[in-house]
């Protein structure tokens, strides 16, 4: 795929290795054929505190700047990218699939607290061992169930809803986590994880994450 880099567009994000919300926003742009100019702020540092205020009303990342307009929050960014740069192709045409995708994206955006807290995304980690709490166990089970239900409904064995959609972008950091920690995953769950891990855009992000020197100690969980 060839990408273009609109001169009026900038994505402000966190360290590629750890910033799962930044990854979601970046993937939606890449899948719309855009390789955005990136401003990467090192999270958990005084520099982040100082610089993020320049760009983000919430002091969080990601934020997408389009000229002098800015959109914060990964899901709002994804919807904006869909409308302005992807000709609405990042949601399925089918109304039922679209509603399912939106519900899944919303559930990911507001839920799975145990998984998000206890299993931070870490692009550099592989098969780390972790004591899996009941909460994480429930989240992993629910996510596997959701992925399978979506693929059953869409008849897809690759992306969740047929073609790539915002729902896939929302779950990409979960696929990275499922590769980073040693978990007992079902065959279809593992297949979806492997599909994501073989994706060229995700691999491009992960290879840059590998080259980052920053380490956030409290995000380095598992052995
Ligand atoms: N709901 C927001 C969450 C954004 C968020 O929590 N971002 C993290 C990085 S992944 C952040 O900015 N952390 C820095 C901080 O809280 O100081 C979204 O979807 O974009």
TrEMBL record:
Residues 9-89 form the GST N-terminal domain. It comes from Congregibacter variabilis. PANTHER family: MALEYLACETOACETATE ISOMERASE (PTHR42673:SF4). The lineage of its organism: Bacteria, Pseudomonadati, Pseudomonadota, Gammaproteobacteria, Cellvibrionales. CDD domains: GST_C_3, GST_N_1. It holds the Pfam family GST_N_2. InterPro entries: Glutathione-S-Trfase_C_sf (IPR036282), Glutathione_S-Trfase_N (IPR004045), Thioredoxin-like_sf (IPR036249). This is Glutathione S-transferase family protein. Signal peptide: none annotated.
